[in-house]
Amino acid sequence: MKIIVSGGGTGGHIYPALALIRTIKQKHPDTECLYIGTEKGLESRLVPRESIPFKSIHITGFKRSLSFENVKTVARFLKGVSRCKKIIREFKPDVVIGTGGYVCGPVVYAAAKLHIPTIIHEQNSVPGLTNKFLSRYVDKVAICFESAKSFFDEKKVVLTGNPRASEVIGEKRRGVLSGFGLKTTLPTVLIFGGSRGARPINEAVVKSFSNFAQKNYQVIYATGDVHYEAVKKEIALIGEKGNIKVVPFIHNMPEVLRAVDLVVSRAGATTLAELTALGLPSILIPSPYVTNNHQEKNAKTLLENGAAFMLLEKDLSSAKLVSLIDKILLDREQMEKMQAAARKLGIRDASWRLYEVMENLAAKAKS
Hints:
By secondary structure, this protein is an alpha/beta fold. The chain has helices at about 10-25, 45-50, 70-90, 105-115, 130-135, 165-170, 200-210, 230-240, 255, 270-280, 295-305, 320-330, 330-345, 350-365; strands at about 1-5, 30-40, 55, 95-100, 120, 140-145, 155-160, 190, 220, 245, 260-265, 280-285, 310.
């Protein structure tokens, strides 16, 4: 099978696409994949590293306010569609999938107009502008949250989950904690604020250090590269604590997630897919700076199902954070209830569900 994949802008759109390609390649090494992204986006750096053929188009997103820039964006979109049609005719894909971000617009639209089977993958509980637009033209809409179904034509919708979930599943590896200089026998919470970190979370966590030091659990805290030095200076004033490990970034996140008992994080779709696949309880602090406030809506899905607690950034404080961590890590019954609830929401075979949809569409087109 020949597949064109497109997704860009943020890791939340790119990582699921890469996870899907990796899974397909493992089981079907003869599958040919082509990735279409923007020339300056994160995908232009991440995709070639995976030795996946990459072609770029020039496209920008729409401004949400009235702006002359939107006229230019329409022109770029039409030019992008023309280039994508050329790429598609040359590559001759059996199916085209878009995993989000404005770069998907011309790619998936061009494929639909050329009568190539098309799918969009929506990671969030509330779709973005591009996927709302494309949903009118595609054959299938793959979703990760049941609540996203109401935004699309029900006949097109299929619940597949997020392919990233398939990459984190595995045996619990407590030994990973030794690499942080921590004990393998104590309950452990991982705290992070996304790849770049989050200042409000950093401030609350640093203020909690003295409190954490007295607890019968341990803390791994990833500050984000941008904030690491500032946090280290503040820690120096308080003094190092034996049950707390501070790092700028975690490169082996799947292994670390399999070693910990609780996660405190933002509520990005990829993170939530990983947490639920592993059955990990969480305390979610949604970013208030995202489109359509989708992180809060993502978090509410886990909250309403008993898999997480939600703490809004405006309500975040050291006292509230420590209290919620205590409530989970120091109460085995509470933790086990949340583990079961998270596991119930998790879709561990997401990549295969998505691949099956693609395979069926391609077969139907050939028949």
